[in-house]
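Lecture notes, continued. The same structure-token format from the folding unit now serves as the input rather than the output. Read the line below as a description of shape only.
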């Protein structure tokens, strides 16, 4: 497995690899890899001739006061995991390689970013949209793989690809959960053992709302009140949002009487957790 640190190295290697690397799959990550990332890699392997994983803790998607400096960066371990998955190369540039100090161009997606995490993480989705566009430009993948756990990110990336006519197939992959239902996330490492137990209440609340919708309950205010109760009964938590939204526009709906996405962001201790499920 090769490790590319610069844009020129990556471009040159992809050029030299030519048709042998096509179709080329990209799994964009910020490292601190877990089974969720490896599931993306495996899906990419099943569809593509070669897979590149980018490992880049993207500074521009962290809002002021967020965990950029303490975000886990176990790079050697990540490389070992990827080597075992027969990844062709890891693209791991330094921040200075991806961002010139005087860059003034960003990719901004409006509308979709007004909802869910958008208001709580100012600038976050501009940072994501910009780095993903740059990664696509540098690595020219045919397909890129994104987890549904970051459902809003997935929809934002799809919109960028559509609006900017980028020739990349965006492949969504289901959320990977631990046996107790907690969605895998690199940030779960911030949870203490009791908080990790408490975190089960998030997926439990989502799945019970999903079941109730399947049984015909469609009043969103009732469903959300129940989810709130369930989460707060598990321990102290700061609920940023609990919403039932249209999956395409991400706008809140009043009745869950058609396909919807149930989504939440909750802070438990120092950890901000997001999760979502489709319903019915
Ligand atoms: O989901 C992530 O890890 C990041 O937001 C991504 C897509 C790699 C962009 O930095």
């Amino acid at each position: 497995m090769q490790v590319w640190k610069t844009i020129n190295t990556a471009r040159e290697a992809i050029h030299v690899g030519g048709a042998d690397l096509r179709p080329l799959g990209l799994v964009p990550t910020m490292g601190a890899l877990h089974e969720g990332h490896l599931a993306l890699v495996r899906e990419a392997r099943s569809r593509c001739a070669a897979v590149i994983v980018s490992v880049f803790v993207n500074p521009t998607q962290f809002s002021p006061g967020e965990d950029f400096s303490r975000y886990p960066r176990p790079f050697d371990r990540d490389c070992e995991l990827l080597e075992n998955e027969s990844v062709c190369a890891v693209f791991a540039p330094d921040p200075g390689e991806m961002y010139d100090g005087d860059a003034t161009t960003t990719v901004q997606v409006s509308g979709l970013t007004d909802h869910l995490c958008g208001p709580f993480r100012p600038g976050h989705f501009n940072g994501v949209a910009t780095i993903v566009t740059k990664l696509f430009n540098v690595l020219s993948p045919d397909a890129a793989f994104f987890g549904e756990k970051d459902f809003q990110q997935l929809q934002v990336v799809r919109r960028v690809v559509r609006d900017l006519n980028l020739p990349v197939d965006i492949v969504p992959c289901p959320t990977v959960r631990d046996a107790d239902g907690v969605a895998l996330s690199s940030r779960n490492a911030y949870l203490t053992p009791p908080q990790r137990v408490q975190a089960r209440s998030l997926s439990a609340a989502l799945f019970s709302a999903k079941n109730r919708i399947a049984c015909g309950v469609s009043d969103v205010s009732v469903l959300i009140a129940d989810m709130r109760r369930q989460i707060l009964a598990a321990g102290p938590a700061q609920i940023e949002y609990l919403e039932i939204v249209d999956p395409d526009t991400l706008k809140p709906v009043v009745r869950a009487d058609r396909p919807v996405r149930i989504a939440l962001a909750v802070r438990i201790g120092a950890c901000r957790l997001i999760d979502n499920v489709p319903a019915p």
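Point for the exam: The mean pLDDT is 98.
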